[in-house]
Each structure stands twice: as structure tokens, then as C-alpha cells.
């Protein structure tokens, strides 16, 4: 049995059609995710226009060091994910395994860094509620968006790490073949998570700093 036939799954008649199906399914899912985050971005934009001074004051309290570090980590993970996908297409199994492992490790590094940042934010009392240290009161709206958007992003990244790790284990066990369309779908999801962060960076960290 050829490697191509091993990568083929029911009910697809051939690998090309299977790849098209995977691509369509993932893009449909990503469209729904874009609508979800789009709603958050729209809400943020509305309130930022209503309270521009408060948002500038609040955004200056975000830690630009962590924001820059996390951006560098995720952009690097996008590179390793792209190399892993390309390596799978060319049947470079070992290279794909290493790059998938690096991608998962970089994702974990992001979450660890974000955890330290969250700890800093909490120690400064930057969680909306009684005793919030910033004024005017509308600064709490910015920080509510900060916690929700970065928290939801972290959940998506955690899912991505799990999927990448599962794909790496299956590839290592030869349960899936390198030319499986699954790698394209995984890469698309990972790149979406990275793109969302690239959008969050100016919204949450660069306001009032440019």
C-alpha cells in the first residue's frame, strides 16, 4: 500500500479531493472564528471612540515588554509551523517532527510569558472591580476587553498546542503520513491564532504610545 493511499480517508475518492474538503472545512471554521473576534474588536472600537482619553490612560499600564516578547514568540512559531507544513508536503518527516515540536514549545513559552504578565497585572490591581487603581472609571472598560480578548486568545492557543502535539505524536508513530491534508488544516488554525495576536498588539499595547 502506498503512502498516498494510507493518507486517504473515507469518504474521499482521492487525496486531492480530501485536501480540498479539509481546506474548505477549516476555512469555514476560521470564518466563524473571525466573526467571533470581529464582534470583540467592534465592541472595543465603539468604546474606544466613546472614551478615548480613558483608553489611552488604561493602555499605558499594559506591559510593552511582554507584548513585544509574546509577539516575537508567536511570529517565530508561525515560521516553524510553516516549515513543518512544507516539510510534510515534501515528505521530510524528521524535519516536520522537529518543527512541530518547536511550534508546540513556542506556544507553551507564550503561555508561560503571558502567565507572568497576568501575575504582574493582578499584583497591580488591574482587574476591573472595587478598588480599581486607575481613573477615570471608564479605564475599567479597556481592562475588561484586555482580559476577555487575551484570555480567549490564550484558550485558542492552548487548543492549538494540543492539536499540534497530537499531530506530532501521530506522525512519530506513523499513524498519519506526512502528505496528510491534516497538516494544512493545523497550519491554517495556528496562523489564525497568530494573526489575532498581531491585531491585539496595537489595540492593547500601542494605544497612546505612538
Taking pLDDT < 50 over at least 5 consecutive residues as the criterion, the unreliable ranges are 1-5
Shape: elongated
Give a count of the beta strands, DSSP E runs of length 2 or more. Answer: 0
- What portion of residues belong to β-strands? under 5%
Cα gyration radius (Å): 20 Å
Percentage of residues assigned to helices: over 70%
Give the class from helix and strand content and strand pairing. Answer: mainly alpha
**Major sheet attributes:** none
**What series of H and E elements makes up the topology?**
HHHHHHH
Mean pLDDT: 88
Total of helices = 7
- Report, as a whole number of angstroms, the end-to-end distance: 59 Å
Layout: helices, strands, pairs:
Elements: H1 3-7, H2 15-50, H3 52-59, H4 64-89, H5 93-123, H6 139-172, H7 182-204
Helix pairs in contact: 2-3, 2-6, 2-7, 3-6, 4-5, 4-7, 5-6, 6-7
Could you explain how this protein is built, in words?
This protein is mostly helical and 210 residues long. The protein is 78% helix and 0% strand. The chain is elongated and about 55 Å long.
Provide keyphrases for this structure.
disordered N terminus, mainly alpha, 78% helix, 210 residues
Amino acid at each position: 500500500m502506498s503512502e498516498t493511499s494510507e493518507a486517504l480517508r473515507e469518504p474521499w475518492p482521492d487525496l486531492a479531493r480530501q485536501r480540498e474538503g479539509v481546506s474548505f472545512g477549516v476555512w469555514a471554521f476560521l470564518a466563524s472564528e473571525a466573526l467571533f473576534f470581529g464582534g470583540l474588536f467592534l465592541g472595543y472600537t465603539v468604546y474606544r471612540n466613546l472614551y478615548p482619553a480613558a483608553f489611552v490612560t488604561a493602555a499605558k499600564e499594559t506591559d510593552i515588554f511582554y507584548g513585544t516578547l509574546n509577539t516575537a514568540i508567536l511570529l517565530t512559531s508561525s515560521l516553524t509551523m510553516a516549515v513543518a507544513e512544507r516539510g510534510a508536503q515534501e515528505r521530510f518527516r524528521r524535519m516536520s517532527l522537529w518543527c512541530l515540536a518547536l511550534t508546540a514549545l513556542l506556544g507553551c513559552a507564550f503561555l508561560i510569558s503571558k502567565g507572568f504578565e497576568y501575575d504582574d497585572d493582578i499584583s497591580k490591581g488591574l482587574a476591573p472591580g472595587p478598588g480599581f487603581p486607575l481613573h477615570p472609571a471608564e479605564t475599567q472598560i479597556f481592562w475588561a476587553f484586555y482580559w476577555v480578548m487575551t484570555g480567549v486568545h490564550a484558550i485558542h492557543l492552548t487548543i492549538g498546542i494540543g492539536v499540534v502535539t497530537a499531530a506530532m505524536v501521530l506522525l512519530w508513530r506513523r499513524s498519519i503520513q506526512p502528505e496528510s491534508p491534516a497538516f494544512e488544516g493545523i497550519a491554517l488554525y495556528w496562523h489564525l491564532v497568530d494573526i489575532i495576536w498581531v491585531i491585539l498588539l496595537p489595540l492593547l499595547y500601542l494605544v497612546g504610545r505612538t
